[in-house]
Amino acid sequence: MRLSVLGCAGSVPGPGTPTSGYLVEAGGARVVLDLGSGVFSGLLRRCDPFDLDAVLLSHLHLDHCADFSALATYRRHHPEPPYDPSSRRLSVLAPGHAPERLAAAHAASRADLERLRLDELFDFTPLAAGRHRIGPVEVEVARMRHICEAYAFRLTHGGRSLVFSGDTVQCGELVELARGADLLLADAAWREQAGRADHLHMSGKEAASVAAEAGVGRLLLTHVLPWSDEQGVLADAVAEFAGPVELARPDAVYEV
C-alpha cells in the first residue's frame, strides 16, 4: 500500500499545509481518507478524481470534509468527464447525516440546497463499527471518542495494514483497531497540557502510548495544530514509543 499525504494540519490550514486528507493506493484501488480544507489541490496532483474508488470521511468537522464541495463541483461540472458521473456514483462512507451536511456546505442558497442533490453523484453508506470492502482493500471501522460522531479506519491489503485514527482522544477502541498494524497515522494535536478539554484530540505522548500498546510497526503523527509546538509533539512521542516516529508532511509518500 502507498499512503500520500494531501494535507495534515489540525483544525485550520497552516502555512503551505492543508488540513486532513490522505490518498491510499493498493491493488489498483484508490481511496481518499478525509477531504479537508485545501486537500483537493493535492489530490489533483496525485490522480484524476474520476479514478477514485471511494471516499472515507472520519467525521464532519470542516477540517476533514470542506473540500468535498470541490469534489462535488468537479464531478458535476467537468466538461469532459471520462464517464457519466450519475451512472457511476462514487462510494462515500461517512457518518449518517453526511448527505444533508455536505449538501448544505456545498449550496450557496436555499434554492441550491433543494436543487443540488449529492446522491446523484455519490453513493453514501452510513458508517458504523464493522467491515467493508473496496475492491481488493478491506476496511475495518471503529467508533472513536470525539466531540461529534467520529470513526477510525484500518485498511488492509496484501498482508499489510495501516490505521487512520481520525480525531479522537486516547482510547481502548483505537488500541484494538491498531493492534499489530504496520503504520498508525495518529491525531497528535498538541503537547501534554493541564486542564485540556476532553474528547478533542490526543497529544504526541498519548498517540505514542496507543502505538506502543497496540504494537504497531511505525507511527506517523498528524493533525498537529498550526500554533502547537510540532517538534515538542514529536519529541514527546519519540520518548514514549520505541519504534520509528515521524511528523506527517504534505506531499510526503509512505510505502506500507
Automatic annotation (TrEMBL):
<protein>
    <submittedName>
        <fullName>Beta-lactamase domain protein</fullName>
    </submittedName>
</protein>
<dbReference type="InterPro" id="IPR001279">
    <property type="entry name" value="Metallo-B-lactamas"/>
</dbReference>
<dbReference type="Pfam" id="PF12706">
    <property type="entry name" value="Lactamase_B_2"/>
</dbReference>
<feature type="domain" description="Metallo-beta-lactamase">
    <location>
        <begin position="18"/>
        <end position="223"/>
    </location>
</feature>
<dbReference type="GO" id="GO:0042781">
    <property type="term" value="F:3'-tRNA processing endoribonuclease activity"/>
</dbReference>
<dbReference type="InterPro" id="IPR036866">
    <property type="entry name" value="RibonucZ/Hydroxyglut_hydro"/>
</dbReference>
